[in-house]
Amino acid sequence: MSEKYPIIEGAEPFYYEGNEIGILVSHGFTGSTQSMRPLGEAYANAGYTVCGPRLRGHGTHYEEMETTTYQDWIHSVEEGYQWLKERCSTIFVTGLSMGGTLTLYMAEKYPEIKGIIPINAAIEISYMEAAASLEDVRFLDAIGSDIKNPDIKELAYEKTPVKSIGEITELMKKVKGDLEKVNCPALIFVSKEDHVVPPSNSQEIYSSIKSAAKELVTLDNSYHVATLDNDQDIIIERTLHFLQRVLETSSLQG
């Protein structure tokens, strides 16, 4: 952390030490750990060891985000993965939006990951590709807080750096090109109405991954930031069932 850009209150990384099963929890593009904290707390309360890293350049100021690359964001998630590996024998990964993209990246790179839970994950957003090529524009309006529940607000940047849009576009291309490398069990959540990531992204992820056990769950009452929205309890409940099912299946096979 630099003195120039202190971490916003509520955007700090979170860690909960529990049992030997670890869950890596990743927030999204221009967002913060606040969007994933309720899930992290629920999984910790269920006994799991949880790590919610703060992606580099996030949770501070959008001018700092502008200086980071998608490799920096991968590195932030990999640091969290290493923290879990030191404590856990089995690791699952979940994430919202670009956090879902990073979840897929991790499953592509680390086949030992036990299962993944992408939530409104992004692999192709045409308006972002167009925005990434804008010249003489440094910042665009915010994309955060796409939430159906009017009482909830996401802790996210009020501006989006054009340079960062170029970075997420590269990350999406990379991850989309390697989807057939994903073989682990997958529980994919998609909001029926999403104003940031087209729901067709999740359908394509579901069709493209090679996982034998995969499920696509539609969320009827949430927009993009479903982890803070009306379907939060459904995500938590279905994820806990998924973890249990995968663990039971592997212990039977083991």
Automatic annotation (TrEMBL):
Coiled-coil intervals: none
Binding-site residues for substrate, renumbered to this chain: 29, 98
Cleaved signal peptide residues: none
Gene Ontology MF term list: carboxylic ester hydrolase activity
Catalytic machinery residues: 97, 194, 224
Residue intervals of the Serine aminopeptidase S33 domain: 23-127, 155-229
Swiss-Prot/TrEMBL site (Important for substrate specificity) positions: 143
Gene3D superfamilies: alpha/beta hydrolase (3.40.50.1820)
Entries under InterPro entries matching the protein: AB_hydrolase_fold, Esterase_lipase, Hydrolase_4, MAG_DAG_Lipase
Domain of life: Bacteria
Protein name: Lipase
